[in-house]
């Protein structure tokens, strides 16, 4: 048995034991461990990592001398004991991201965290070269969350088989021309044994998640999705639970994990994958299984305000296992309403990617993508970037949204500018500021103390502005921000709620107001 | 008594009688007339037009020899008889606009009518020069509906007293600097006698409505509005009914009249004007009083999909007196849903005006205004233009949206291009075409026979398109439309639902597809 002696708070403690290799270790061996500190106890599942190696992992959140004891139905793994010392976090280790207040996030140590997400669903199953390139691209940009899948992806522009699979077996057939019919894989066409994981596949995933953590990036990990031609989206309840238990045993100790139960869950019922009434059980299962209570949500396809007359329903985000809204919508005007209704953070994880593919979700301009970030954030929500540029029809060049690789677009550096602007001005989160109806008014928010206001004018073209929603008794210094050209210009006069001022005539401007003390 | 001998179908028959001038002719004299044709009878109210002249007007919809007999509580007006011959309509007389099918409009004779509205609320109370300029501007453009108020308007940029008032009396006070408080006029500050109309005011209004009809323009006449500092928005039920009866007696015979019960009715309750529960009575009153059953609706301020959590409510457009939705919203994605829900035409009478004033409703670009027309119309609805350009803060130059006058913007001629395109291609209305969700997909619609499709790409930037919602068995000729530069280019190949085709990279393109027979 190999255990660590010392581990930093919120870092991963790992215990490795040798055990049986015969039979099916994933099914036959039951391994748990109880971690104890000053009367606090938590019991968690271990997992089989192949080659006779069994592991138990835990992310301690409290400092002190922890004791560990194993329980197993195999004598060589049972009753093993270890101790380790959990010491205070150092450096860039702020712990996992949690919900703070009701509308926003923070690191566990209280450090501000505002998600600036991006999307590269199946990057961890691309070639090693593309994986490395993805990490290099992320390092050069300012995204601090990435949406990514556990399983490989079968979709338009996603027609290459992965080098590895999460389960023992092989695909029985595949096509390099995608059609939706591929998702309707029949039982007899499934070539995988869902009782036998491929540890190598998960080791590779973990390695990438660890590298993301080193870059300060949260892995918003999608556990199920409909883009499946192998059968991973139709394993049934028993193997879904087995998979979740295995995955959580492996990954819950990574402090930068978020659980995204599914991408576009509401597409899965009609193809005979996972039915609408199964999600609550799966969501609760993750919530119960995860000893570290990472963030958890579920992501829709149908835009409910538009489709409310159809049978497709918005997921009930009030369910207790859901920590935040992870939505697909471009109805950004609803942000403040949803914040009030659910009392949970609102993340627009899909709001039209910058790119030029033939689908509406992926032919937004850079201006449009950036505009969504400003409009959503200043209403108190968070936006997620994606990029879908192709050279020409049916190119095989990696597309960031699906494969990672390189970014070609014009929005990422401008999103980075917004992130820096908020950090430089100590916005721990943005409090939406109620404006005169109707809905098309300026987007505006403030810091918690209402000493700083941000107002986004977007592509409107007012000759002048009067910000009559400001506190009436206060004067403000003003900086005019060109969100596209990434410049800030100090306005020469002090303004207040009654000041009428003119701006240069150009689109995508914003204003930063700082209350004079 | 002077009656006409011959009147064209849907034109105005007018009977003039001399009667008493003493007392209060508006209140004391009750005058009606019964119109009969082949056993059909309709009895309608006459009105006092000043100078001892009483009139009865009627718009006959059936040809034949009509008989008229008057009833009055004054002997000299009672029992008068007349006959006239109603002959078939000629030339550009297609009758009033009515609802056709469930989603669209047509003239009474079946000629197609697609509303292309504009907005100049108080143009008929501006100087004679501005009124003439307004009509000249309308003649030079392609709008065929105009939203306009009966009463004068008190609002930002609307601070000049009109030359005439609709009632006998004079304003007790007014300010040339507008604030919302002006709308809270107290009873003791009302200087008008609501029992005595000023016929000259209504004659001027009628003259302008007649001139609109000669230009082929529908007068979408707003009967009440909150922008009032004189008391016309707080006359009480009795005088509201008196006003409506008088107005309808005067105007229901104008074939180009639409009744817009109120503009922004939902702003009127909080200022003590007309309460929310009063509108249904007023709406029904108009419906019962109008012998010609003109179109009738009511227009909101609050955008209900956004404000549904507030106390402000969307008006119940399912009420039987409401012929169509007349809404303020920029949630154009809801168009098809509202069509389905209400089974009535959907008109976005306010969706952000082209201009540069400081309010969100009036700082849209020309691109944005044009974009709304395409996005709304191709989803089966109708849009209304408005223009709010100012030279600089607080200019007194007429602004089209409020005063009429001149147009300075770049959207009107492009809206005219769209109107001509639809007419040239014989779109009697546009049938929305269901597209793949989510909501941000292309806007697309067809003609009733589904032999012509229009697809709007807007500011999306797809490298290519596959229009897989087209009928699968059909081939189409395609014309690429540059909606901004107003050009059409024939695409060199035949396309079908599976064709992948590339477009020049530029924004605001649309496609017209014509099915090959």
Q: Report the strand count of chain A.
A: 30
Averaged pLDDT of chain A: 93
* Chain pair with largest interface: A-B, 51 and 51 residues
Tell me the major beta sheet of chain A.
6 strands, antiparallel
- The strand order across the widest sheet of chain A is 23-24-25-30-27-28
Uncertain runs of chain A are none
The percent of residues in helical segments of chain A reads: 10-25%
Say what oligomer this is: homodimer
* Large-scale geometry of chain A: globular
Question: Rounded to an integer, what's the Rg of chain A over CA atoms?
Answer: 24 Å
Coarse structural class of chain A: alpha/beta
Strand-residue proportion of chain A: 25-35%
How many H/I helical runs of chain A? 10
Report the end-to-end length of chain A measured between terminal Cα atoms: 61 Å
Could you characterize the architecture of this molecule?
The structure is a homodimer of 517-residue chains. By secondary structure, the first copy, chain A, is of the alpha/beta class. In chain A, 20% of the residues lie in helices and 26% in strands. The first copy, chain A, has ten helices and 30 strands. Chain A has helices at 25-28, 128-140, 199-214, 236-251, 279-289, 304-307, 335-342, 366-377, 400-403, 412-424, and strands at 6-8, 13-18, 31-37, 40-45, 47-48, 53-58, 64-72, 81-87, 97-100, 104-107, 117-119, 145-149, 167-169, 192-197, 218-224, 257-262, 296-297, 325-328, 346-350, 354-355, 382-383, 387-388, 431-432, 443-446, 452-458, 464-465, 476-482, 487-490, 501-502, 509-515. Chain A has a six-stranded antiparallel β-sheet, covered by helices on one side. In chain A, helix 5 links the parallel strand 16 (257-262) and strand 17. In chain A, helix 4 packs parallel to helix 5 (279-289). The first copy, chain A, starts with 5 loop residues before the first strand and ends with a strand. The interface between A and B is large, with 51 and 51 residues.
């Amino acid at each position: 048995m190999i255990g660590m002696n010392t581990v930093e708070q919120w870092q991963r403690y790992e215990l490795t034991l040798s055990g049986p290799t015969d039979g099916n270790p994933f099914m036959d061996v039951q391994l748990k461990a109880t971690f104890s500190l000053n009367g606090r106890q938590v019991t968690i599942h271990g997992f089989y990592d192949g080659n006779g190696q069994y592991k138990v992992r835990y992310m301690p959140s409290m400092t002190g001398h922890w004791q560990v004891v194993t329980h197993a139905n195999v004598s060589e793994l049972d009753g093993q004991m270890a101790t380790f010392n959990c010491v205070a976090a150092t450096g860039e280790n702020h712990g996992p991201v949690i919900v703070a207040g009701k509308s926003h996030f923070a690191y566990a140590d209280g450090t501000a965290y505002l998600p600036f997400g991006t999307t590269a669903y199946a990057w961890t199953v691309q070639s090693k070269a593309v994986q490395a390139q993805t990490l290099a691209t992320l390092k050069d940009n300012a995204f601090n969350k990435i949406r990514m899948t556990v399983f490989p992806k079968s979709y338009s522009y996603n027609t290459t088989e992965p080098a590895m699979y999460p389960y023992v077996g092989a695909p029985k057939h595949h096509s390099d021309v995608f059609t939706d019919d591929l998702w309707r894989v029949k039982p007899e066409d499934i070539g995988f044994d869902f009782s036998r994981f491929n540890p190598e596949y998960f080791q590779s995933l973990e390695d990438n998640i660890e590298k993301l953590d080193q870059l300060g990036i949260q892995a918003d990990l999608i556990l199920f999705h409909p883009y499946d031609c192998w059968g991973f989206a139709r394993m049934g309840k028993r193997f879904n639970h087995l998979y979740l238990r295995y995955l959580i045993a492996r990954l819950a100790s990574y402090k930068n994990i978020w659980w995204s139960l599914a991408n576009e869950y509401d597409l899965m019922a009609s193809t005979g994958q996972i039915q609408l009434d199964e999600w609550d059980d799966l969501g609760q299962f993750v919530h119960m299984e995860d000893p570290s209570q990472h963030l958890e949500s579920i992501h829709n396809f149908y835009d409910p305000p538009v489709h409310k007359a159809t049978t497709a329903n918005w997921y009930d985000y009030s369910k207790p296992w859901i920590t935040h809204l992870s939505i697909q919508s471009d109805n950004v005007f609803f942000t403040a309403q949803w914040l009030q209704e659910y009392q949970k953070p609102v993340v627009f994880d899909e709001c039209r990617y910058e790119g030029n593919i033939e689908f509406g979700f992926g032919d937004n301009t850079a201006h449009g993508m950036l505009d969504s970030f400003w409009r959503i954030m200043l209403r108190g929500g968070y936006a997620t970037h994606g990029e879908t540029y192709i050279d020409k029809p049916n190119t095989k060049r990696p597309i960031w949204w699906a494969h990672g690789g390189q970014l070609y677009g014009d929005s990422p550096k401008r999103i980075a500018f917004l992130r820096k602007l908020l950090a430089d001005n100590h916005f721990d989160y943005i409090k939406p500021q109620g404006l005169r109806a109707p809905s098309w008014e300026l987007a505006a928010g403030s810091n918690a103390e209402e000493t700083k206001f941000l107002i986004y004018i977007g592509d409107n073209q007012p000759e002048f502005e009067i910000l009559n929603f400001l506190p009436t008794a206060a004067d403000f210094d003003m900086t005019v921000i060109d969100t596209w050209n990434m410049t800030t210009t100090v306005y020469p006069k002090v303004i207040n709620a009654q000041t009428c001022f003119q701006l240069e005539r150009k689109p995508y401007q914003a204003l930063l107001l700082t209350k004079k003390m």
